[in-house]
């Protein structure tokens, strides 16, 4: 008989397209994962993976099995959550993903109050880019996500948390360093530093400044990398409001922050979950707690939409 664990391994392998990374996400060794996939193929009497290298490819049957396994894993996970919620809707384990451009800056603000108000809840956190978060949420590998909300995604539902404004970070030696604000259209002529492709903040920055996907500029792996590049005078970058606040609290002197006007750009933060998930009331509760400790909601931001 097929095991749910084997199907889970196959789904994660299909997502990562890498045995080592899949084994890491499944908390097993690579030989164990490979052996279970081979055993699954033997039980089915058919190949699920093609033997071509270096890229891992699914056979046509493999694609069909993964699609059905994803739905099955999600249903099983929801049954487990439903049982736990019937006992206590505010306890148990919640697997929550947060996008990298938000995790380090919002967790210090909300983590303590979540522990205080939900002491029986065990939150398992992971950092994922938006497309990875959505994929793992759809397949049941995580239960919810905290992110800059993208456009509506079939099968998922969201609750809005907070609109976070963007500011412009410039070197302390920049000609604009003595200013307090700048019009958004004036940024176009600057050397805009971006996060690498895959980060929603990079896409939002390009859209604000009317840049193409092929815009040739330095692309950093994290906001901290961009922080050092700006400080050294290599360019300017868009910084979310919570990031600005943390850098200023840390005593950042090499960077000046300018408000952006005409319009003021921002991103809609929120929680994302599966439609019909038993854990949705808990996600909404987390949203309420987070709202209670975030700064006062400023008005007038133009939320930059993205896919």
Keywords:
alpha/beta; D-Maltodextrin-Binding Protein, domain 2; 11 strands; 9-stranded mixed β-sheet; Arc Repressor Mutant, subunit A; 22% strand
Quick overview:
Helices cover 43% and strands 22% of the residues. The chain is built from 10 helices and 11 strands. Strands 1, 2, 3, 4, 5, 8, 9, 10 and 11 form a 9-stranded mixed β-sheet that branches. Strands 6-7 form a two-stranded parallel ribbon.
Structure notes:
The chain is of the alpha/beta class and 307 residues long. It has 3 domains: 4-81, Winged helix-like DNA-binding domain superfamily/Winged helix DNA-binding domain (Arc Repressor Mutant, subunit A); 85-162 and 267-303, 3-Layer(aba) Sandwich (D-Maltodextrin-Binding Protein, domain 2); 164-265, Periplasmic binding protein-like II (D-Maltodextrin-Binding Protein, domain 2). It has helices spanning 4-16, 19-26, 30-44, 60-87, 100-117, 130-138, 200-209, 223-231, 241-249, 280-293; strands at 92-98, 121-127, 144-148, 156-171, 181-183, 194-195, 219-220, 237-240, 255-261, 264-274, 301-303. Strands 1, 2, 3, 4, 5, 8, 9, 10 and 11 form a 9-stranded mixed β-sheet that branches. A two-stranded parallel ribbon has the order 6-7. β1 (92-98), α5 (100-117) and β2 (121-127) form a beta-alpha-beta unit. α1 (4-16) crosses α4 and α2 (19-26) packs across α3 (30-44). The radius of gyration is 22 Å and the shape is globular. It starts with a helix and ends with a strand. 35% of the residues are buried. The model has no long low-confidence stretch (mean pLDDT 86).
